[in-house]
Amino acid sequence: MPEQTRTLSPDLCDLGVPPTVRPLVNGYHVARWDNPSALTDTGRQRMLALLRDLAARSFGADHSDYWHTRIDSGFFDQISCLALILDPAGVPVGWGGYHRRRFASRRALYLDAAGVTPAHRRFGLSSALMTHFLTLEILTRPWGNTYVVLRTRHPAVYSGWRKGLGRARVHPRRDRAVPATITRIATDAAHWLGDGPRLDPRTLLIRDAYRMFEGRVYGVTPRSGHPDLDTYFAEQVGPKDAVLMVVRMSALPLARILLGRYLGGPAPVPTGGRPVRGAAPTESTHKAAPTGAGAAGLIPGGRP
To answer: Which listed site, 160, 217, 220, 238, has its alpha carbon 20 to 30 Å from 293?
Structure first.
């Protein structure tokens, strides 16, 4: 049976536009929409229901208001790629997406909110999905740089990217000043996000980035397992603040990632999901590791 239809659950068969379905890892698949704006009104409503359900199951909180705000602000017309992670039976167990942009005249991907339901976090799905996204984009322009931009206040996200790619490609770096090109990219991205005045270009910290939350962003303080990095996030990144990460990518580091995955080595961590106002004790965020389990990169408000 063709790959396009073999793994689709009934939830995905009536969205108006069929996804591209490809193997991901460990028997899981990715169902990808490369033009989400083509989804019909009915398809958009069905997709919204899927995303709301996945977010609720992933983080133990009702995120309906967040998703309705995103949809009302043109989410499907803005995002460049939207994907669902399917388990071996074809049932959605996670999601992710990105925006294809140019920041400071540089080619860039901005990572949208993403998540994986708790029962499926041990399989490296977040890392596999991000590698899938990077492969799609970087191979279209293999010899130029592509900058990956994301916001997070989870130290495991930062640690995972640094472990997968090396310190020199991941910014900000605590041991060196932010390079001028990275500063320009971050500043442009922050303005696009509506956070321009809140960005500190010296540290790439965005103050009050998660201002949309009435309560705490995390129910449990997130940790990476690296004491110095965890201390920095705890002391310098406020409860509603975020680090605007800028990661320099190209074909060579992508090849290393793919080789590392083939050999069972480390891979970078994507956003891995939204921060939550109250994490369930059994899924506390301090257990987050560079597989993306519990890692987070929320996009506040209705802006992507």
So the answer is: 238
